[in-house]
Every structure is written in structure tokens, then in C-alpha cells.
Specification:
alpha/beta, Aspartate Aminotransferase, domain 1, Aspartate Aminotransferase, domain 2, 2 domains, 16 helices, 35% helix, globular, binds glutamine, pyridoxal phosphate, kynurenine-oxoglutarate transaminase activity, transferase, PyrdxlP-dep_Trfase_small
Length: 477
């Protein structure tokens, strides 16, 4: 099996944007050019507007349009800076507690020596690659070779970007399940790929003693099979899943592996929430399934493991034939990830086992999860049972707001979940993330029924949020 290594040629893909609002930060000329290019995209007659020049931002950029980068991103709209100061942030997934002190100390030590302030090798600091190798031990079914099978990136996001830059040829189809972590779409589009979406489907199982059933989301394998074409290059997996909290079962992953073998595909397995798997469930590393090591790049993140999302340290693990091209791309994108935080990540990985860090962290997260689940249970609102990660997907389709409620312009053209989330943040005082952002345009109406709440906050904060959320009962249809 040989994968073709591709340059990251940019092509115009066929998807259009679904709002005709030009971003507000554009100049008036750029706004007109944007509207004109957008109108054309929608198949209407173009309105008169000056022709874009070489210096008109965005006007001709299929790459930004197809990557949804002409919209304001959901993280910015629902950033705490745009919400009332007293609003509790359960939106963007970052913690209100720090990474462990013993890990932070390593960054301080690194800054105190000259070398710690300079470039790391593009592949990553040797100490961190060794720590990654030792942390995983034989979890990949073999010991990892830190010289060949591990690459450090500037956060998992940049690792993904490098992998797609390395492997996508123009028009290559990349299958992902919906809902999907929003970054996949732009990163694939920017690198010339064509995202193909396979929706996951919710089902409800009764739970004794609870008002709300256990909602779990599953794959329709016929749908997945139908999505595969001769242009399919790879499948993107994400387990534990953001935003569903789903942990894919061994049986599901084996069935996917079967299709991967049959159609000679590559896999990107985003496992950044690997340390947060609840209820004694098993985190199955896709790369360990028969024949999958050779085809899989696994993505990890120090930010998620150690409550350090701002460190921007992640890694790719896989066979040399897949890591080398990703490294070649990464070297030309950022050259290297930042040095002192790589040292902190290394120290964290080195000491985590001995300190029982992950066991304790998982217990704390289980308590945090319970606070939010109980709040939704009391409200009688349906939610996806979070088997892993720190997200709960809540069905908000019954939330109603006054007809004259004022919404900001940034919500124009967005699905109703944006309005519900805005209303909840401003009226109830708890922010969340509207889930239509995690769907393609065609399936956005499905996502519009849901909002995602993060429980990566201390228990007291979550209790206050849970109390506030009870007021939602007055706003349900
Ligand atoms: N992964 C985090 C989340 O889903 C943050 C994403 C981001 O800020 N781009 O909340």
C-alpha cells in the first residue's frame, strides 16, 4: 500500500456559504466584493459592485469561503469577552483551574536556561518525544520509536493541519462523522480536500429512576459505506468525541477498520480526550486494530491531558511513512512547537503515573459531569450521555425566547441554536456552544437542536451554573 504524498495545492471546492452577510470587519469595498462573490455562489444575479482588486481581502478566496473562514467563528461569537462578565463560561472548552504546579515548574526552569528560549528540533524536543514514548508504553501494540514515529506539534490543531497538508491531493474526499469538531472542515478545505459528512444518529434508551433516557449516537454503516467513493482518501475519527462525548466501541471501530481495509484508506484518529473515559469504558486506540497501524495517524494533546489548553503542545503518532510527510509539512508551517511548554509537557508526562494524576483527574471529572447531568435531568431535558471528553450535548429545541429579544448582528444568518445559546448566556447567565457549527450546511438543521456545555470547570462553578440553568424551565415550550 502506498499513499501519494501531495503538496497542499488549493482548489475551489463546490460548497457554498449559507449566509449573505459580509463579515463586519471588512472594508466597505471588501464587503461589496464579498456580497457579490457570495451572490454568485448562490446562483442569483450578481449585484453591481466594483470588481475586486488583488488587494481586496477574501473576495476571490475559494479556500476561505469553503473553509467557512468568512464567517465569524463560534468561539469568537461566544467568547467570554462578548458576554456579560458574570456569565459562567461552559462554552469554549478550557478549564478554570491551572495545570499541575510540578509541570508548570519545568517551563519556568526551561526559561531560565538559554536553550529553553530557542528553537526546538522540528520533530520536537527529544525529552518530550521520549516522554510520549514512555507514556504510551506498549499501548499501540508496540513500543514507539521517538526518532521516527512521534512528531510534536503546536497543539493538536496544527498537527492535524500538517497531516492534511502532507496527504491531501486536490479533490481528495475526507469522510467525517457529524457532528464534527469544527476545525476539521476549514483545515481540510484549506488543504484542497473535500469533506464528506456522515451523520451520527441519536437513540434513546430508558434509564431506571431517571426522567431522561440515555441518549447515545451511533453510526449507520450503510450510510458510511455509501459515502465511500473512488476519491475517498481518508476517514477522520474522534473518540472520545467532541461535542457528543461518545466513546466509540471496539465493535464500531472494528467495523470501520473493515471498510478502511476494503477501500485502502488512511485514518486520522483524533484521540485528544483519551484520558477522559468514564463508566469503566474502554478507550480503543484505532491504530491497534488489525492492519491499522500502517494506515493511521493518532493525534494527542498535552492541553487536554493536563488542563493546559494554552500551552499549544500536541503530537502525532504513527508509522514513519505517515509521520515523515506530516513532519515535512509541519516544518514549513511552524518549524517547531514552542520550547518551554514542550519541557512542561515532558515533565507532566514523566510524573503523571507516579502521582496518579490521571486517576485523580478522572474522578474529579466524573463529579463535574454528575453536576451538569443532574441539572439537565432535573429540567427533564434530553442530553447525550457523556461517555468521555468534557462535553454534554443538550437538546435545546424546546427553548423559547421573547419575540422582541435583541440579538447581535453576529448571529444574523445563523441557525436558531445560536439564538438559543445567546439567550441562555445573556438571560440565564451560562454560556454554551451552538452545535450547528459542527454540521455541514446541508445538515445544519439537525445541529440546530443542540447546544454543547463543557464541564471542565471546578465543581462549585458547575453547581452555580446548574442552579442558574434551572431557570430554563420557564423558557421551555
Ligand atoms: N477544543 C476546544 C473546544 O472544543 C476549543 C476549540 C477552539 O477554541 N478552537 O471547546
Amino acid at each position: 500500500m502506498a499513499f501519494r504524498f501531495a503538496s497542499s495545492t488549493i482548489v475551489a471546492a463546490s460548497r457554498g456559504v449559507s449566509t449573505n452577510l459580509a463579515p463586519r470587519f471588512l472594508t466597505p469595498q471588501a464587503r461589496r466584493a464579498f456580497s457579490q462573490s457570495h451572490t454568485r455562489q448562490q446562483g442569483h444575479a450578481a449585484t453591481a459592485a466594483p470588481a475586486p482588486t488583488k488587494f481586496t481581502p477574501f473576495a476571490n478566496s475559494a479556500r476561505l469561503r469553503d473553509g467557512r473562514a468568512l464567517y465569524q467563528d463560534v468561539w469568537t461569537i461566544f467568547n467570554s469577552a462578548n458576554l456579560p462578565p458574570e456569565c459562567i463560561n461552559l462554552g469554549q472548552g478550557y478549564m478554570n483551574f491551572p495545570p499541575p504546579k510540578w509541570a508548570r515548574a519545568a517551563a519556568v526552569d526551561a526559561l531560565d536556561v538559554t536553550e529553553g528560549n530557542h528553537y526546538a528540533p522540528a520533530r520536537g524536543r527529544p525529552r518530550l518525544r521520549k516522554a510520549v514514548k514512555e507514556f504510551y508504553g506498549t499501548q499501540f501494540g508496540k513500543e514507539l520509536d521517538p526518532e521516527k514515529e512521534i512528531m510534536i506539534s503546536s497543539g493538536a490543531n496544527q498537527g492535524l493541519h500538517a497531516a492534511w497538508a502532507a496527504f491531501l491531493c486536490p479533490g481528495d474526499e475526507v469522510i467525517m462523522f457529524e457532528p464534527f469538531f469544527d476545525l476539521y472542515l476549514p483545515a481540510i478545505a484549506f488543504n484542497g480536500g473535500k469533506p464528506v459528512y456522515v451523520p451520527l444518529h441519536p437513540s434513546e434508551e430508558p434509564v431506571p429512576g431517571r426522567n431522561v433516557g440515555k441518549q447515545s449516537w451511533s453510526i449507520d454503516f450503510d450510510e458510511l459505506r455509501r459515502a465511500i467513493t473512488p476519491r475517498t482518501k481518508m476517514i477522520v475519527l474522534n473518540s472520545p468525541h467532541n461535542p457528543l462525548g461518545k466513546v466509540f466501541s471496539r465493535a464500531e471501530l472494528e467495523a470501520i477498520a473493515q471498510l478502511v481495509r476494503e477501500h485502502d484508506l488512511m485514518v486520522i484518529s483524533d484521540e485528544v480526550y483519551e484520558s477522559l473515559v468514564f463508566d469503566g469504558l474502554e478507550h480503543v486506540r484505532f491504530a491497534t486494530l488489525p492492519g491499522m497501524w500502517e494506515r493511521t495517524i493518532t493525534v494527542g494533546s498535552a492541553g487536554k491531558l493536563f488542563a493546559a489548553t494554552g500551552w499549544r503542545v500536541g503530537w502525532l503518532v504513527g508509522p514513519q511513512a505517515l509521520i515523515d510527510p506530516a513532519l515535512a509539512a509541519s516544518t514549513r508551517i511552524v518549524f517547531c512547537a514552542n520550547t518551554p511548554m514542550q519541557e512542561a509537557a515532558a515533565a507532566a508526562l514523566e510524573q503523571a503515573r507516579e502521582r496518579r494524576f490521571f486517576e485523580n483527574q478522572l474522578e474529579e471529572y466524573a463529579q463535574r459531569r454528575a453536576v451538569l447531568m443532574d441539572a439537565f435531568e432535573k429540567l427533564g431535558m434530553e442530553y447525550a450521555w457523556p461517555e468521555g471528553s468534557y462535553f454534554i450535548l443538550l437538546n435545546i429545541s424546546r427553548v423559547r425566547w421573547p419575540e422582541d429579544y435583541k440579538f447581535p448582528d453576529s448571529l444574523n444568518g445563523r441557525a436558531d441554536d445560536f439564538k438559543a445559546a445567546w439567550f441562555i448566556a445573556n438571560h440565564i447567565g451560562v454560556s454554551c456552544i451552538p452545535v450547528s457549527e459542527f454540521y455541514c450546511d446541508e445538515h445544519m438543521h439537525i445541529g440546530a437542536n443542540y447546544a454543547r456545555f463543557s464541564f471542565c470547570k471546578d465543581v462549585d462553578t458547575l453547581r452555580t451554573a446548574a442552579e442558574r440553568l434551572q431557570k430554563l424551565r420557564w423558557h421551555l415550550s
